[in-house]
Amino acid sequence: MRHAYDTETVRAAEQTLMRELPDGALMRRAAAGLAVACGDVLRRNGRVYGSRVLLLVGGGDNGGDTLYAGARLARRGAGVRALLAAPGKAHPGGLAELLAAGGAVIGTPDGFGPVDLVVDGITGIGGRGGLRPDAERLVREATAGRAPVVAVDLPSGVEADTGQVLGPAVRADVTVTFGTYKPGLLIDPAAGHAGALRLVDIGLGSVLPARPCLEALQYEDVAALLPVPGTESDKYRRGVVGVAAGSRQYPGAAVLAVSGALHGGAGAVRYAGPGADAVIARHPETLVHPGRPAEAGRVQAWVVGPGLGNTPEAVEAVADVLAADVPVLVDADGLRLMDTGAVRARDAATVLTPHAGEAAALLGVAREEVEAGRLAAVRELAARYDATVLLKGSTTLVAEPGGAPVRVNPTGTSWLATAGSGDVLSGLAGSLLAAGLAPRDAASVGAYLHGLAARRASAGAPVAARDVAARIPEVWRDVYA
Ligand SMILES: NC(=O)C1=CN([C@@H]2O[C@H](COP(=O)(O)OP(=O)(O)OC[C@H]3O[C@@H](n4cnc5c(N)ncnc54)[C@H](O)[C@@H]3O)[C@@H](O)[C@H]2O)[C@H](O)CC1
Ligand SMILES: [K+]
């Protein structure tokens, strides 16, 4: 699991640790790890000795880390030059060490020649509100060439705690972060600026609280959560997932939701609704019922919503499902048709899976507001509906009411923004619910597998939702193996 902590918590932990350590020790630790990471990037295209490294140095401790790391690279024979974003405020100890190691301060990158590496140390967790104009100009000049950019702690200009990008911000190839991940490294749009992440241990782990504010499942976490049938299992013990989706207008949504559900670990898929013929034609293994969900037979979890339309039958299907005493996943049209009181009154778990537009409608705000503040939006929805909420996006978030860490999905791809892909996800996550996973595990494991399947199906090209569903068994096998 990758854990992320907010700025306030990181600062408190740093204070605790610094009281136990000699002056400056923490910054030197950070700088040592940063220099190793920079060395690795330089060695990809050459070597450290004789390379040209340009440091962008802000007036805070982020700049201090950068100067000490620059000094280390200079001692290994790199030509290191520093551009100061706030000349009067550059960390004095770091500056002295850089100069003593043979590095230099320059006023402009002109004349330094082609650069092999740019190190962005303008702001870390102390940066707010996008790069200021001077800093932005510095970044523009320094990154005009093709040199790789290593960001120190965070790409300068992104918001550490929210993942927002409120103005111009650095785009890094690698971000070397200290002590713990920060939410902004894992949540888009900021995460999209960070490139590959590298965590440097500075001893913070021992003083951070047990509960992070954000966590990201990794391969091994997903493997441990996947439902695997025991020798005693039969199809009913593995769970039956009910799917109430599709309409005469949108029969494809029923087919796609069922295709996801068939690959999610439940022993059987039961379909209820007007798409029964289309479903059985494409997925003959489905138990179909052409009428309403309440008459379809017993299931261990329901998925309701994709392609339901807005007919009286659709309203009835949503009400039927919300009245069931099993976990329910509500998506798409179901989110528009559900009764808030009915959702809040449920005893069994409810999982809501809106995209940003649907989340905005549920919250009564503009879509842009949700997109700019995804973490706040998903938390607010979970509290308001007393439900597990999966907010779709390139970094899908899953929140629960009650302050458990929000989960962020690391496998997303923008190719997933394609018609029908959400239908597959709702079936898949619902199937995991029926197989017995806890709501936030079902939602986050579903998002993880769905993202990996999309990456596989896409391989850099546009992808159709049915191809995503078809790849689920393959990624399941890979994760489990
Ligand atoms: N405390 C430690 O021992 C360690 C800290 N580490 C590093 O320190 C930074 C956090 O340092 P801090 O001085 O608090 O803040 P920053 O350097 O991130 O930023 C302050 C600096 O930036 C200027 N500034 C703020 N906003 C902007 C902006 N939008 N544009 C331009 N400049 C801006 C502000 O005026 C200050 O001059 C942390 O991230 C680590 O890198 C290490 O973890 C080691 C231990
Ligand atoms: K930075």
TrEMBL record:
<keyword id="KW-0511">Multifunctional enzyme</keyword>
<feature type="binding site">
    <location>
        <position position="253"/>
    </location>
    <ligand>
        <name>(6S)-NADPHX</name>
    </ligand>
</feature>
<dbReference type="Pfam" id="PF01256">
    <property type="entry name" value="Carb_kinase"/>
</dbReference>
<dbReference type="GO" id="GO:0052856">
    <property type="term" value="F:NAD(P)HX epimerase activity"/>
</dbReference>
<dbReference type="GO" id="GO:0005524">
    <property type="term" value="F:ATP binding"/>
</dbReference>
<dbReference type="GO" id="GO:0046872">
    <property type="term" value="F:metal ion binding"/>
</dbReference>
<dbReference type="InterPro" id="IPR030677">
    <property type="entry name" value="Nnr"/>
</dbReference>
<dbReference type="Pfam" id="PF03853">
    <property type="entry name" value="YjeF_N"/>
</dbReference>
<keyword id="KW-0456">Lyase</keyword>
<keyword id="KW-0479">Metal-binding</keyword>
<keyword id="KW-0630">Potassium</keyword>
<protein>
    <recommendedName>
        <fullName>Bifunctional NAD(P)H-hydrate repair enzyme</fullName>
        <ecNumber>4.2.1.136</ecNumber>
        <ecNumber>5.1.99.6</ecNumber>
    </recommendedName>
</protein>
<feature type="binding site">
    <location>
        <position position="422"/>
    </location>
    <ligand>
        <name>AMP</name>
    </ligand>
</feature>
<feature type="binding site">
    <location>
        <position position="423"/>
    </location>
    <ligand>
        <name>(6S)-NADPHX</name>
    </ligand>
</feature>
<dbReference type="GO" id="GO:0046496">
    <property type="term" value="P:nicotinamide nucleotide metabolic process"/>
</dbReference>
<feature type="binding site">
    <location>
        <position position="307"/>
    </location>
    <ligand>
        <name>(6S)-NADPHX</name>
    </ligand>
</feature>
<feature type="binding site">
    <location>
        <begin position="124"/>
        <end position="130"/>
    </location>
    <ligand>
        <name>(6S)-NADPHX</name>
    </ligand>
</feature>
<feature type="binding site">
    <location>
        <position position="156"/>
    </location>
    <ligand>
        <name>K(+)</name>
    </ligand>
</feature>
<feature type="binding site">
    <location>
        <position position="62"/>
    </location>
    <ligand>
        <name>K(+)</name>
    </ligand>
</feature>
<keyword id="KW-0413">Isomerase</keyword>
<keyword id="KW-0520">NAD</keyword>
<dbReference type="InterPro" id="IPR000631">
    <property type="entry name" value="CARKD"/>
</dbReference>
<comment type="subunit">
    <text>Homotetramer.</text>
</comment>
<feature type="binding site">
    <location>
        <position position="355"/>
    </location>
    <ligand>
        <name>(6S)-NADPHX</name>
    </ligand>
</feature>
<comment type="function">
    <text>Bifunctional enzyme that catalyzes the epimerization of the S- and R-forms of NAD(P)HX and the dehydration of the S-form of NAD(P)HX at the expense of ADP, which is converted to AMP. This allows the repair of both epimers of NAD(P)HX, a damaged form of NAD(P)H that is a result of enzymatic or heat-dependent hydration.</text>
</comment>
<comment type="similarity">
    <text>Belongs to the NnrE/AIBP family.</text>
</comment>
<feature type="binding site">
    <location>
        <begin position="61"/>
        <end position="65"/>
    </location>
    <ligand>
        <name>(6S)-NADPHX</name>
    </ligand>
</feature>
<dbReference type="GO" id="GO:0052855">
    <property type="term" value="F:ADP-dependent NAD(P)H-hydrate dehydratase activity"/>
</dbReference>
<feature type="domain" description="YjeF N-terminal">
    <location>
        <begin position="10"/>
        <end position="210"/>
    </location>
</feature>
<comment type="similarity">
    <text>In the C-terminal section; belongs to the NnrD/CARKD family.</text>
</comment>
<feature type="binding site">
    <location>
        <position position="153"/>
    </location>
    <ligand>
        <name>(6S)-NADPHX</name>
    </ligand>
</feature>
<keyword id="KW-0521">NADP</keyword>
<feature type="domain" description="YjeF C-terminal">
    <location>
        <begin position="218"/>
        <end position="479"/>
    </location>
</feature>
<comment type="function">
    <text>Catalyzes the dehydration of the S-form of NAD(P)HX at the expense of ADP, which is converted to AMP. Together with NAD(P)HX epimerase, which catalyzes the epimerization of the S- and R-forms, the enzyme allows the repair of both epimers of NAD(P)HX, a damaged form of NAD(P)H that is a result of enzymatic or heat-dependent hydration.</text>
</comment>
<dbReference type="InterPro" id="IPR029056">
    <property type="entry name" value="Ribokinase-like"/>
</dbReference>
<feature type="binding site">
    <location>
        <position position="120"/>
    </location>
    <ligand>
        <name>K(+)</name>
    </ligand>
</feature>
<keyword id="KW-0067">ATP-binding</keyword>
<dbReference type="GO" id="GO:0110051">
    <property type="term" value="P:metabolite repair"/>
</dbReference>
<dbReference type="InterPro" id="IPR036652">
    <property type="entry name" value="YjeF_N_dom_sf"/>
</dbReference>
<dbReference type="InterPro" id="IPR017953">
    <property type="entry name" value="Carbohydrate_kinase_pred_CS"/>
</dbReference>
<dbReference type="InterPro" id="IPR004443">
    <property type="entry name" value="YjeF_N_dom"/>
</dbReference>
<feature type="binding site">
    <location>
        <begin position="392"/>
        <end position="396"/>
    </location>
    <ligand>
        <name>AMP</name>
    </ligand>
</feature>
